[in-house]
Write a structure and sequence with these properties.
The protein is mainly beta and 116 residues long. The protein is built from no helices and eleven strands. The relative contact order is 0.32.
Length: 116
């Protein structure tokens, strides 16, 4: 089992940047594929980005490709999401996920608000 705690959310103006972090508990962090999802008000939760266990492969939704970068540090049990060129449509609660053998763990989420 793994516990996930997100941080780094906040209020930023359009065009600005934020860096989200997700700290994971446990000694088996490198066994988990990690990812980020988000949920905007009144909308369904959607995939944002993911990274393989070794960090060698990354995946992005079309809406954030080229603006967001996911990374991980297996020595520190940490996964990050660097978000640049933020737009109001990026507003939402961002959730960190950890996936292993088809089971996905979720963090509590961190709010990101982008003002126009």
């Amino acid at each position: 089992q793994v516990q996930l705690v997100e941080s780094g959310g906040g209020l930023v103006q359009a065009g600005g940047s934020l860096r989200l972090s997700c700290a994971a508990s446990g000694r088996t962090f490198s066994m988990y594929g990690m990812g980020w999802f988000r949920q905007a008000p009144g909308k369904e939760r959607e995939f944002v980005a993911a990274i393989s266990r070794s960090g060698g492969k990354t995946y992005y939704s079309d809406s954030v490709k080229g603006r967001f970068t996911i990374s991980r540090d297996n020595a520190k049990n940490l996964v990050s999401l660097q978000m640049n060129s933020l737009q109001p449509e990026d507003t939402g609660v961002y959730y960190c996920t950890a996936t292993h053998i088809g089971y996905k763990y979720w963090g509590q989420g961190t709010q990101v608000t982008v003002s126009s």
